[in-house]
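Q&A FORM
Asked by: J.P.
Topic: structure of Glycosyltransferase subfamily 4-like N-terminal domain-containing protein

PROVIDED:
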Amino acid sequence: MSRRGLIVVRNGVTHDARVLREAATMAEAGLEPLVLGVQTTTERRRRSVEAGFPVLRLDPMASWRRTLSRLRPGWAVAAPDAGAAPASTSGGRVAPPAVPGPAPGRRAHVRRLLVALDFYRQAIGVTRRLRPAVVHCNDHNTMWVGVAARLLTGARVIYDSHELWPDRNGRPEWRPALLAGEALFVRAADLVMTTSPGYADVIARRYRVARPAVVRNVPAGLPGGAPEPQPPDGDPVAVYVGGILRGRGIEQAIDALPMAPGVRLRCIGPGAGAYRAELARRAAQRGVGNRVELVEPVAPDAVVASLRGAAMGLMLIQPVCLSYELTLPNKMFEYAAAGLPMVVSDLPVMAGITREYGCGVVVAPADPGAIAAAMHRLLDPRLHEACAAGARRLAAEVTWDGEQARLRAAYAAP
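REPLIED BY: S.T.
REPLY: Here is the structure written out as tokens.
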């Protein structure tokens, strides 16, 4: 019987490129991977195959909904979003009635706690049945599964911190509890890894542990190689790819457009309908509504191809929290793989790489005027080609093959 591996994440998996790359690497290391995710408002399938690997999605509120329905018919609790996908009224779903009782803030806190408890109950049950040799826990909100696996089955546990969880954008939990939990997690895990050298430095200093391994979010090799460059069709396009979320500089990019005549903005990624509508209103108010596109996400292996024809990539992360300040987003490597010059926030890690490779222009992220000026500069053919060459050099030197070697070694260890 082959050795089994379990990858745990609290999202719908479909658009999580890092998790799907983990599954492929696990298989190459001789493990039989299963990805354990959650059902969301936009991904309700319990089982599926993604990128050739089986996915099992838990519904952490199912048992609570059944209990509440028996206690009081008609009293239901909404399906979980797991923090990964916005609520939706499309597809014929009817929102359940509001739960009476505590104030909305308290109710949301109680609901998050119930979701977390039921997720851990179900996920630990899967772990006990599967008895995997390796458990790869993606982020703080899955790591109690790893602790239980270590105690109950003796599995090798990897804690993969995609961000600084106690210092992330929109953190609702009590920070001291998050810090205490992570202090345990980094000691319970056989290996700690993260996505940014900035995060690795903070984790090592904060918890007085060995510096975590850094496995950057680099796209896997593209079938047939990188796509051929395409000349812009019409007006130059500044593209953003990633979550349509606050703190990502989308508002500032819209505000820059009136000062960058002729430049269009295309945003590709998942986001809540209400926030998308807010961005559309903002664009209309600034007179650039016809120059802003909000595009639905594409499959992870199609992201780089979706960037073809753009003039530049935007990476305008706002320093709204320490996690954002020290981030090294996967979009930097996706833009590089597409050969796109970049407009990059002047934040330590991403700006450092931009200057090292000469792949873009560094700007003050909160200044629309500076963003517009950078867009103009990158439309100059000489600077555009110089930054595009830097992006191609970054893509050639920082590859998934190199990052994957560290991950494969972790999976193959006895």
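FOLLOW-UP: The chain is about 40% helix and 15% strand.
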